[in-house]
Amino acid sequence: MLESVADKWTILVIEALAEDTKRFTAIETAVPGISHRMLTRTLRNLERDGMLTRTVYAEVPPRVDYALTSLGRTLIEPVDAFIRWAEQHRHIIDENRGAFDAR
Predict the structure, then answer these.
(1) Beta 22-23 vs 52-57: how paired, if at all?
(2) Burial 25-56 (b: 16+ CB within 10 A, else e)
(3) Total-model pTM
(4) How far is CA 15 from the centre of its chain?
């Protein structure tokens, strides 16, 4: 379970959906660097785990919306805390990596 929830792309997708429902392309834009294939896989895994809903509208062209479920919304606070921690400590980690790699 931890492996699927703590994945880099999963964390960023949850963050992207924290505020509101989004379409695929809006999520793709909100998560820089994610490939179409990886976003599709991440959304499917989150849907499978009950973390998000996928709503298809019978329109031309078809519209698909993604939204966090109540279970998925319980991850917003821990994800936000982890992102804040990573942002606050990124420079220290970069320095440590540089020092390690120089040895």
Answers:
(1) unpaired
(2) eebbeebeebeeebbeebbebbeeeebbeeee
(3) 0.86
(4) 5
Q: What does the block give as tokens for 87?
A: 């942002």
Per-residue pLDDT of the chain in tens (103 residues, 90 and over written 9): 777 777 889 999 999 999 999 999 999 999 999 999 999 999 999 999 999 999 999 988 889 999 999 999 999 999 999 989 999 999 999 999 999 999 9
Protein fold of 2-102: Arc Repressor Mutant, subunit A (1.10.10)
Q: Which two tokens stand for residue 75?
A: 């991850």
Query: So where are the chain's domains?
Result: 2-102
Q: Are 60 and 48 in contact (CB under 8 A)?
A: no
